[in-house]
Amino acid sequence: MKAISRAVLGVAFGLAAAGASAAPVLMSAEWAKQACAAWNQDPVLTEKLVESEWVGNDKKRGYKVMHVYRTDCTPAKPVEMRIALKDGKAMCVYAGEIENAALDGDVDYLMHADTARWLEMGNGEYGPMRAMMFGRLQFEGPKLEAMRNMPPFENFLLLVGKVSSESTSCPK
User: Fold this and answer.
1) Which residue range is the domain that position 74 belongs to?
2) Would residue 70 count as lying in a domain?
3) Is residue 83 assigned to a domain?
4) In Å, what is the CA distance from 9 to each residue of 1, 17, 20, 37?
5) What pLDDT, in 10s, does the model give residues 114-128?
6) Residue 98 falls within a domain, yes or no?
């Protein structure tokens, strides 16, 4: 009897531990935090966005804001990533729940796509230009600025494939 109880407890603890280490839901606040850390490890994002002066176009607020979400998840629950010039690099300094509800279309970005499309872009099946041309990625923000920054923009989309996530459920 004791052996069976120990076995049941062992399985229960094992399942709890597996659940605790499970990948975060794609585009959830926890996923955004991991994407932020991955951003800061990507030299194309951290360096090229300084060279192009992308990060400096912030209306003197000290940061740019990006909201991203999955279109097929309803209600829509965007997450926020904030990028700022820090130690000479374009660094992600915040990621998680929305803190800047009002975006400034001259400097900030809103991007959304169906889950399947995010996964395709994250796997490198196509880049941002094709995604926007064919309506796979909905995009609001300074379009000319984005066009001048396609390689970094593509690296941002690839973060979806680099950051471990679970995409069968929607962010809560």
Assistant:
1) 24-162
2) yes
3) yes
4) 12, 12, 16, 35
5) 999 999 999 999 988
6) yes
